[in-house]
Amino acid sequence: MRIVDRDELSRLLTMAEVIELVERGFLLLHQKKVLMPPRSVFNAPYHEGSLLYMPVLIEDDRPYLVTKIITVYPENSRLFGLPVLQGLVLVFNAMNGTPLVALEASFITAMRTGAAGGVAAKYLARKDSKVASLFGAGPQARTQLEAVCSVLPVEKCYLVSYQDPREESFAGEMGEKLGIKVVITADRKSAVEQADVIICATTSRTPVFDGSWLRPGTHITAIGSFKPEVRELDSETIRRAKIYVDSREAAREEAGDLIIPVREGVVDWSKIEAELGEVIAGEKNGRENPDEITVFKSVGLAVQDAVVAIGVLKKLDSGR
Ligand SMILES: NC(=O)c1ccc[n+]([C@@H]2O[C@H](COP(=O)([O-])OP(=O)(O)OC[C@H]3O[C@@H](n4cnc5c(N)ncnc54)[C@H](O)[C@@H]3O)[C@@H](O)[C@H]2O)c1
Questions:
Q1: Alpha helices in the chain (DSSP H)
Q2: Which of the four CATH numbers 3.30.200.20, 3.40.605.10, 3.40.50.720, 3.40.50.1010 does domain 125-300 have?
Q3: DSSP secondary-structure letter at 278?
């Protein structure tokens, strides 16, 4: 069985390709060509980390069984200089169970999570969005910004400082890579007020901005929280916005950004407008006017990893 490391993956995959793959993955999920049990999250006792097991069956041109096994240690970058996410994606032939390829998971996770934000921005953000404001300076924030820049004419990004030592290199490297101006700011309110698109890609357990600061027409993508008691968005943001998710079922299980406002009685679950797959299929509307505030809440789905891993396998098989 072939093993594909991070360097090879970064040579094989572009963000534009991953956005296309992930968009197709959301559509396949909506068309019920994907069987995806809820992922299991095992919070390791005595350790500040979790082990996630994310299996999926995809019936596309050929059937594949894919699973991601990944650890999430939120304090890793601060305490040990290690990635928050580490693990493997394994692809099997679904007809005979033969393992086909193992891929390093953190690169795929960052690319597919960024790509989900890119797909959401394509359908939900204003087409003339020029200013992005970003919470988080880790690997997820990098690919979120890259994906948004590949679908919208972003010229400037405000990176909201949280005293992360990686912020300077983030601003320099991403500014150069994407050909945009990245400005580090400590002024959360002004960053939110000026944004066309806001990206939350943090490990924060509590809201990172006040929803009353949002101006009409803003799109927000929030990818950080995946536990019921953890959220990056406050209840006011959820109350004011049209809400889109990757999966209703997963959101109700895991998305503190929605679970907490529902528990508070601020909104109920009918507040979710659509899953992204329904919008891609043309069955539900994305943005309908320039004044709407839209939120895409992602908890992350195994199908996103699976379509990217299968995409890599096909590239390897075809020798590209
Ligand atoms: N939805 C998904 O599919 C998905 C996939 C992968 C990772 N994630 C989640 O994304 C998050 C980010 O992952 P990462 O690997 O980039 O983490 P990281 O630790 O490398 O970076 C987190 C960043 O958040 C910033 N931050 C923390 N609290 C903040 C606050 N209150 N205000 C502003 N900034 C704050 C930190 O300074 C840091 O820059 C994690 O919570 C991870 O679990 C989600």
A1: 6-12, 15-30, 76-80, 105-124, 139-151, 167-178, 188-194, 235-240, 248-254, 256-264, 276-280, 302-317
A2: 3.40.50.720
A3: H
Per-residue pLDDT, averaged over 262-275, amounts to 98
Tokens 């049990």 belong to which residue? 37
Predicted pLDDT at 104: 97
- Pairing outcome for strands 99-104 and 85-93: antiparallel
CA–CA separation, 187 and 161 (whole Å): 8
In percent, the amount of the chain with pLDDT more than 70 equals: 100
In the set 33, 68, 122, 156, the catalytic residue is: 68
- Is 205 close to ligand 1, i.e. is its CB under 6 Å away? no
Ligand 1 contact via 140 beta carbon (within 6 Å): yes
pLDDT 10s digits, 225-268:
989 999 999 999 999 999 999 999 999 999 999 999 999 999 99
- Tell which atom from ligand 1 comes closest to the C-alpha of 300: 3
Does the Cβ of 162 fall within 6 Å of ligand 1?
yes
What is the distance between the alpha carbons of residues 21 and 251, in angstroms, rounded to a whole number?
22
Query: Residue 235: CA atoms inside 13 Å, Cβ hemisphere, count?
Result: 10
